[in-house]
Automatic annotation (TrEMBL):
Residues 135-169 form a coiled coil. It is found in: Cytoplasm; Nucleus. This is Signal transducer and activator of transcription. Transmembrane segments: none annotated.
Length: 740
């Protein structure tokens, strides 16, 4: 309820914006009387593009209606009687409106809550920014944009006022012109009068005509000046519109798209489109108003032609304003939810496209259809050059047509592709060492619609982020590398889909850290020491100084084309193996700080040498993809564990099984760190059966340990080799034979 309390404190334009969120689709009274209940529900847990979530949405709708009915029943007194009827009516209305489409109710309420939160936050920032505290950069930028809109609104209102004055002046001019024509007709008819009367009447009419003609001459000059001044004002307004549109489309929208691309690498969510949509709608409204004004000026000029350059001026203004609105419409046809960037054939996938100005321009009155096709990198280049690629595609997508739907609650016009599937793909000839997982495609979304009663017809298209098509799960690793490199290092406005062949090491570190933190769902990313370890691996270097790597570059080939020295896998394949292992089995231990991970065998030995016996640490295997090993004070390393091992017995249980492991480096008792993850003891046997239990053991060879548990350093290499062979068998079944 805290949000609603704050929302009620909004003032001025923010209050009007908040009130505009409500209507028949969701009455503000429902928000008010169910504020606490509404804010306590998990609206964000419902995936709007997943039809399977409809049951959850239906439950929320039913609960909302029940809460409204309950609230209606407890109303009493004279005023309560009316409120009881009103709330009961709203309950029936919401049930009727959303019963067949409960996901739309969730979409509506999510939009309302997000918008309220944004308005409250903006108001808070504005109030804290007054006085000694400066507004943050985002608020300042938004304030500048809003100020520019206010300037445009005033300029458009001024030209509207001037246009009305011009119209009134011209109408009066036409009346006087008609009067002059009447006088001329009267003069022509004097020939039938007697000479004396004719002379008298003629003198009067000629004097009157001279006066009117003099006024018409002066007024024609004034009208022409009015027209030129108005055209000049429109030119200035169009300049301001272009400038504002550049800020919104070429800066704000491009930044949103860049955030969307980085989100594919695990970056922060790109954020909603509410603010951008409201700006684009304001632009559309102002552009359309100015276009209508220019059209009216053209009509006035045609109605009363006067000597001068007005026809050419208005023609240019009309062409300019059409270019501006065309740029706005085509640029605001965007992909709200990208298709997966690693796309497996014969697998269902989804995407959402929207037209940010669709609602404002009434495109939804005749809902357009959107088509999706997959195209190659070369076809994408040709598209952006406006070369003809009609009917060309590089594969076949099933369920690739969708009609755009208008969502009244949010004012958005969007098409939700929920069940697309790539049936087949046609690959191009690869270049040099390029593999199939380096080949990039894109999903092209295109549509056609008109605005202004078929006055303007637009063919719009937008390209998805590059996708890599795979046919088998084993290709996922290398395809992800291609996507990560592209998302991280693509330049805005590039030719599809060019990326640098090499980048600075710190740039790659930033991308790897972003990916790692996202997969771990943790603020604990890669430390400087971790990144030094990775640099040593990538460059086959022994330097421990991070400064040595700051100016070094790493190429795509070093990243995921060439195998690491002495290995049969690349740098990325090793790193991705670590990420997959951690994500599936060891995420809690990483977030607890229990896994050092990025430590080589020699470093582990040096770190443990000065520690008490039984001290151990966990490090990633250098020799096996997705492997982690236990190194302990006796300077032995267990054969690495992989996902397969942890699917049998967890890391915590394995550590519990090994009695030689006492302290997690540097000095934490192992039970203090891992006990909360131990599997509880097995329950007593049921029906006379004893359930077997799997435990890990490390066999001890005769003479390998002395009475204190230390290794005898005088043991021969034969014993060491014998132990190594034994350690290759880390698992053993131990059966409890206790009687129930």
């Amino acid at each position: 309820m805290a949000m609603w309390i704050q929302a009620q404190q909004l003032q001025g334009d923010a209050l009007h914006q908040m009130q505009a969120l409500y209507g028949q689709h969701f009455p503000i009274e429902v928000r008010h009387y169910l504020a606490q209940w509404i804010e306590s529900q998990l609206w964000d847990s419902v995936e709007l593009d997943n039809p399977a979530e409809e049951t959850k949405a239906k439950r929320l709708l039913d609960n909302l209606v029940a809460e409204l009915q309950k609230k209606a029943q407890v109303q009493g007194g004279e005023d309560g009687f009316l409120l009881k009827i009103k709330l009961g009516h709203y309950a029936s209305q919401l049930k009727s409106t959303y019963d067949r489409c409960p996901l739309e109710l969730v979409r509506c309420i999510k939009h309302i809550l997000q918008s309220e939160q944004r308005l409250v936050q903006e108001a808070t920032n504005a109030s804290s920014g007054s006085g000694s505290q400066a507004m943050d950069t985002l608020s300042q930028r938004h304030q500048q944009i809003n100020q520019a809109f206010e300037e445009l609104r005033l300029a458009t209102q001024e030209t509207e006022n001037e246009l009305r004055k011009l119209q009134q002046s011209q109408e009066y001019f036409i009346i006087q012109y008609q009067e002059n024509m009447r006088i001329q007709a009267q003069l022509s008819s004097l020939s039938s009068l007697a000479p004396t009367e004719r002379t008298q009447r003629e003198t009067t009419l000629q004097s009157k005509r001279a006066t009117v003609e003099a006024w018409l001459a002066r007024e024609a000059s004034t009208l022409q000046k009015y027209r030129l001044d108005l055209a000049e004002q429109h030119q200035k307004t169009l300049g301001l519109l272009r400038k504002q549109q550049t800020v919104i489309l070429d800066e704000e929208l491009i930044q949103w798209k860049r955030r969307q691309q980085l989100a594919g690498n695990g970056g922060p969510n790109e954020g909603g489109l509410d603010v951008l949509q409201s700006w684009c709608e304001k632009l559309a409204d102002l552009i359309w108003q100015n276009r209508q004004q220019i059209r009216r000026c053209e009509h006035l000029t045609q109605q009363l032609p006067l000597p001068g350059p007005m026809v050419e001026l208005l023609s240019k203004l009309n062409a300019d304003i059409t270019d501006i609105i065309s740029a706005l419409v085509t640029s605001t046809f965007i992909i709200e939810k990208q298709p997966p960037q690693v796309l497996k054939t014969q697998t269902k996938f989804a995407a959402t496209v929207c037209l940010l100005v669709g609602g404002k321009l009434n495109v939804h009155m005749n809902p357009p259809q959107v088509k999706a096709v997959i195209v190659s990198e070369q076809q994408a280049k040709a598209l952006l050059k406006n070369e003809s690629t009609h009917s060309e595609s590089s594969g076949e997508i099933l369920n690739n047509n969708c009609v755009m739907e208008y969502h009244q609650a949010t004012g958005t016009l969007s098409a939700h592709f929920r069940n697309m599937s790539l049936k087949r793909i046609k690959r191009s000839d690869r270049r040099g060492a390029e593999s199939v997982t380096e080949e990039k495609f894109t999903v092209l979304f295109e549509s056609q619609f008109s605005i202004g009663g078929n006055e303007l017809v637009f063919h719009v298209k937008t390209l998805s982020l590059p996708v890599v098509v795979i046919v088998h799960g084993s290709q996922d690793n290398n395809a992800t590398a291609t996507v990560l490199w592209d998302n991280a290092f693509a330049e805005p406005g590039r030719v599809p889909f060019i990326v640098p062949e090499k980048v600075l090491w710190p740039q790659l570190c930033e991308a790897l850290d972003m990916k790692y933190k996202a997969e771990m769902h943790s603020g604990r990313g890669l430390s400087d020491d971790n990144l030094v370890f990775l640099a040593q691996k990538a460059f086959s270097s022994s330097s421990n100084n991070s400064d040595d790597y700051r100016s070094m570059t790493i190429s795509w080939a070093q990243f995921n084309r060439e195998s690491l020295p002495g290995r049969n896998f690349t740098f990325w394949q090793w790193f991705d193996g670590v990420v997959e292992l951690m994500k599936k089995h060891l995420k809690p231990h990483w977030n607890d700080g229990a896994i050092l991970g990025f430590v080589n065998k020699q470093q582990a030995q040096d770190m443990l040498m000065s520690k008490p016996n039984g001290t151990f640490l966990l490090r990633f295997s250098d020799s096996e993809i997705g492997g982690i090993t236990i190194a302990w004070r006796l300077v032995w390393n267990l054969l690495p564990y992989t996902t397969k091992d942890f699917s049998i017995r967890s890391l915590a249980d394995r550590i519990s099984d090994l009695n030689h492991l006492l302290y997690l480096y540097p000095d934490r008792p192992k039970d203090e760190v891992f006990a909360k993850y131990y599997t509880p003891p097995l329950s007593k046997a049921v029906d006379g059966y004893v359930k077997p239990q799997i435990k890990q053991v490390v066999p001890e060879a005769d003479g390998m340990l002395d009475p204190d548990g230390d290794f005898d350093l005088e043991d021969t290499m034969d014993v060491a080799r014998h132990v190594e062979e034994l350690l290759r068998r880390p698992m053993a079944n131990q059966w409890n034979s206790q009687q129930s």
